[in-house]
Amino acid sequence: MTIAVLGSANAVSRGQTKPADKKEEPPVRVVLAGLVHGHAFGFFDQFQKRTDLQVVGIAEADHQLTAQFAKRYGLAPGLFYSDLEEMLKATHPQAVLAYTNTYDHRRVVEICARYGVPVIMEKPLAVSFEDARAIEKAARAGKIQVLVNYETTWYRSNQAAYDLVHENAIGEIRKIVVHDGHQGPKEINVGPEFLAWLTDPKLNGGGALFDFGCYGADLATWLMDGRRPDSVTAVTQQIKPDVYPRVDDEATIILTYSHAQAIIQASWNWPFSRKDMEVYGQRGYAITVGRDTVRVRLPEKQEISADAKPLEKTKEDSVSYLRAVLLGGMKPEGQSSLETNVIVTQILDAARQSAATGKTVPLAGTQ
Known about the structure:
The chain is α/β, with parallel strands linked by helices. The chain contains 12 helices and 15 strands. The strands form 2 sheets. A 9-stranded mixed sheet has the order 14-13-12-11-7-10-9-8-15. Helix 4 runs parallel beside helix 5. The longest helix is centred in the last third of the chain and has 20 residues. It is globular and about 60 Å long.
């Protein structure tokens, strides 16, 4: 392995060129379940004008919220439904995009499984390991795909770090450190419907622990090839109890593996938004810097900083990935897969238990 994993002039166009004689595939027909997740705005901002995607329905009971979306994005009144099941019967979509609170993910998947409709949801998968297993059971019974969308899945920098590990450039992993968070949801002015459930321990599972701890748990599980950690230890705090009286706003999770350790730092107290990680192997390291850049040190070399090469076209964003799974038969794996995210939820559930009891939670040998 050389730094060819990083950006080069030849890598820029990789996966970008479409054959001239290739016919345009029809758009994937999707519906949205819920709008209370703030990332729903990001979805419309990023994807509304894409020709490979067609929104044919939106199920949301909050009429004030639907009116806000209709006005902002010019959405037709006929798109909106008050009930998910009613919408599925009327629209027959190819996939459901869930923008509910995390607690409702189980209900959404169980309904969609009965109609044989795949689901992609915003992270994390569930508020408890029990719900994660119920989602897994429903998906299996309905023979549907369930995907989980993380912003960091589409970071070139993370893929470059993964490649450096799996091409044995830096040796076997010894330590992973992941930092994720921002100043806090209230401080960055998220919408009231989003803030209400983010700060509800039932609907979110916790505070920063679930909101941002899921990123590190997902990346660590991916980097460790789907292995469960042997143990989970966590400490949470309420640094701003006047702002977040019901949930934690600061969390640190330590995962142990037989020959490695992962430290996940999740915070609503960073001075700036950040999503980055450090991966240390036996012989070198990779440190991600934002979405596109990696700092790398290899054996007997000085540290370099370079742009990571572009991702494959099917892995550039959540919509491209969804299309590849639905139309191209691609098998979900890694950060987005249900298998990975059941483990992620098990880690978060154990971390919540550890923080509450002050004890390490063993996971070795669990299923």
